[in-house]
Write a structure and sequence with these properties.
Helix content is 35%, strand content 18%. With 223 residues, it is of the alpha/beta class. Bound molecules: adenine.
Length: 223
């Protein structure tokens, strides 16, 4: 069972996420284990200081090395992967999610403020991941995104194993449109072919729609 420890200054941001949906079921059924830790538990002064001003000047505050390094040294295990969520990390992807799902122990560090002391990265971080080219106020939601995406690759988390193979990015095209009942809604009919029962024709139609959509919104995927 993959074990995941999340280190954050905002542990409650993950309460709803962990309780709900498919992931909540996976946790209930012990298919994975996620523990959230408040970084301030490793601070030692009475103000529970986790950040300080940057040497060399500049705006914002920087996360201090002592509490973070102490926390990771306590949580880590031999062979675990220690990951820092940061906009300057390597881009997150399906391939990365699938790889992380095979690890036995992950420690996810959520950053805050303008960044973290470089010595944290140099000593207790194995990998840095960005979930996209935008800046969040802290990395906690990024950690949630990584956990959610990798949980889909843990056997049994998804109800129907098959549903994984049908979705975007496991191949390299975007999804085709889906329809369910009613067959007519506000004057809009479901494409005839989907009601035909002709599986070869349905596959052909779906492939064409996938290609069309990919050309339109993600031409980069076709290169
Ligand atoms: N922390 C702030 N922004 C982030 C991003 N885009 N990805 C990962 N961690 C982050």
């Amino acid at each position: 069972m993959p074990r995941i420890d999340v280190l954050t200054l905002f542990p409650r941001m993950l309460d709803g996420f962990l309780a709900e949906s498919i992931l909540g079921k996976g946790l209930e059924r012990d298919l994975l284990s996620v523990k959230v830790h408040d970084l301030r538990a490793w601070t030692t002064d009475k103000h529970r200081t986790a950040d300080d001003r940057p040497f060399g000047g500049g705006a914002g505050m920087v996360m201090k090395p002592e509490p973070v390094v102490a926390a990771i040294e306590q949580l880590q295990s031999p062979g675990c992967k220690r990951i820092y969520l940061t906009p300057d990390g390597v881009p997150f992807s399906t391939a990365l999610a699938a790889g992380l799902a095979r690890e036995s122990h992950l420690v996810l560090l959520s950053g805050h403020y303008e960044g973290i002391d470089q010595r944290i990265r140099d000593t207790v971080i194995d990998m840095e991941i960005s979930i996209g080219d935008y800046v969040l106020t802290n990395g906690t939601l990024a950690a949630a995104v990584v956990i959610d995406a990798l949980s889909r690759f843990i056997p049994g988390v998804l109800g129907e194993e098959k549903s994984l193979t049908h979705e975007s990015f496991t191949g390299k095209l975007l999804d085709f449109p889906q329809y369910t009942r009613p067959a007519e809604f506000r004057g809009m009919s479901v494409p005839e072919v989907l009601l035909s029962g002709n599986h070869a024709e349905i596959e052909k139609w779906r492939s064409a729609r996938s290609l069309e959509k990919t050309k339109k919104v993600r031409p980069d995927l076709l290169k």
